[in-house]
Amino acid sequence: MERVYDVEWIKDSIVSYLERVCACTLEEATEEQLYKAVALTVRDQIMDKFVESRHLRHDSKSRRLYYLSVEFLMGRALHNNILNLTRTKEYEQALKELNISFDAIAEQENDPGLGNGGLGRLAACFLDSLASLDLPAMGCSIRYEYGLFRQKIVDGMQVELPDNWLDNGNIWEINQSVDTYEVHFGGRMIEEWVEGVKLRRHVDYSTVLAVPYDVPCVGYDVDTVVPLRLWSAKAPKRINMEYFNRGEYVRAVDERELAEVISKVLYPEDNHYEGKELRLKQHYFFTSATVQYIIKNYKKHYGNDLTRLHEKVVIHINDTHPGLAIPELMRLLMDEEGLSFDQAKAVVERSFAYTNHTVMAEALERWPEEMVKTTLPRIYEILHELNEDYCRRLWNYFPGQWDRIGSMAIVAYGQIHMANLCCAYSYSINGVSQLHAEILKRDTFHDFNLVSPNKFTGITNGITHRRWLMAANPGLTQLLYESIGDAWVKDPERLTDLMPFADDPAFLEKFAAVKQDNKVEFAGFLARYQGSALDPAAMLDVQAKRLHEYKRQLLNILHVLSLYNRIVEDSSFEMAPRTFLFGAKAAPGYMRAKLIIRLINAVADLIEKHPRAASMIRVIFLENYSVSAAEKIMPAADLSEQLSTAGKEASGTGNMKFMMNGALTIGTMDGANVEIFDRVGADNIFIFGQTAQQIGEQTADGVGSTETVGHGFSLLKAAGRVLRRWSACAGILQI
Fold this sequence. Notes:
This protein folds into 3 domains: 1-180 and 210-231, 3-Layer(aba) Sandwich (Rossmann fold); 270-461, Glycogen Phosphorylase B (Rossmann fold), CATH 3.40.50; 465-729, Rossmann fold. Strands 1, 2, 5, 6, 9, 10, 11, 12, 16 and 17 form a 10-stranded mixed sheet that branches. A 6-stranded parallel sheet has the order 20-19-18-21-22-23, sandwiched between helices. A 3-stranded antiparallel sheet has the order 13-15-14. The protein contains 28 helices and 23 strands. By secondary structure, it is an alpha/beta fold.
């Protein structure tokens, strides 16, 4: 008999889990214990769907997608899972009757430390959409024990602390150790003859075990569950008893620690050899484990003919980090399954799709050739074979043009070029906005586009409106229900039904009330979170995204300084009260970005000390920006700052989230802003600055935009003059 998940079942299950799992009564339970009990009731419902979904997954004749990404910025799961199960009303009623505060227990869930920026957030939204669309898929990444880092602001500067997000366990994950695989590093290659055939064999390697944990992602109002498979690194031997019994206790566990460091931290600092090598190991670790699983799963359901793998499998590379999956699949098909190089290559070329996320040269990964040779000797050999194969093909297009071929080669100038590898051996390559796709074809991958023009396309990033509107902004959601019904929940294009209300005074009044309520709620959050005071009556101007020079948080804070100067120097100048909110993490080794954070906090202190300035403007830096924080910021924001240098931001998704929650965009014609401009019209977006084409033309003409640089220098000088009044800032700007 099918289980009925009604209010009574939810209540009984919560009480039962408190007794059986937490060994306490409802009256005794802490908020953490209540969270665990409530989450377990949700997990039960997901598991029922998950088991059924696994049985149906391979009955379909469609291909199965494996989405490989080093980041999946999932956010807290409890609220989103209840929403997608369509049990919101039942849980609201059950928790009310049990006198449990949902907001209080939801705060007990840690944000999974599995991502940093747009790359990871897109991947998370992608999984949600795949499940909601009933598509067979699996996400694949690393189970980072400590994630990126927890940001603390001390004396205006960013300090990085461990993100212990797994300290209390992860109630949503399922240990799938039955699918554990060996991943090999180091060693050397030897030749041996087997039945008259000369073979290459990998020996003297070290082994790391890849242990999988599945986090189920349930689709909205469907039975499909898409697993996010996270690989955890484990040593084959937990402890060396020989060393331990001799009293060499540290040495007894050294091997384990060296193996397991692979899945400790997202983006280990790579400005030194050891850090770069660790990143290389991370990327190979999870791609090797994933590809081994793909082959095992294919053979289980479809037999041993691996020449047809591509008919049932698509492997999607989310940026270049998982690109080592290409030579790894070649290795397994040739060394383990007995296919020839040409047979394996034919499968590979029809199995991989590649999404490029950036045109920034430093983000197009390159590995030192010697490092790859030492760390992954068999993969190194295969990369050379692939390189020779591709360069022979390039000779047909560009005969005698060695420099041109070298720029497209996989192995060239002492480095392994991962973007070139992905372009050469993927059947599809996409940019993440229409502008980005055009830049890839015109500039970044111009010659690849000449060789394979049908490969390139633009697929603009998107967001799951259920999480970023329905879950994050219940007040606006209710207003939409009242105004246009609920068809938009499953068909977001139906949000255009709201257009007739754009000039409706009654609707606008209700919308303003929702926005004000959200700002009041966010003000309360800020006060609790970091003791910052926010005036809900002031305009809330937000720039919340990964901190990078091209995203131009510096430009924003210089604008704030220019307003400060006007207020101080012109007693007649007045402006509407405005709070500038920044939320961002800087990479630990990115000193310019960290100095920008210091500057933002210095300006905040400077303004606070000037009564007249403080009455009109305020600057707040939100510590440890996260998905959970974003869910509170987006509904409250009035203005959305999207300031990237045109041609540098591939797409962006924050611009979409802010806009969906009713914030006006201030930005450049960059990334998805171009498409937003086309949809909303010039009257509903504030655009400034040069276009990507104009900047490209200046660069091509050798014009380094002297005028722009000059103005920027003047602004910096002005900033320096102002900030030198504040003694603590003396070391920030040396102008």
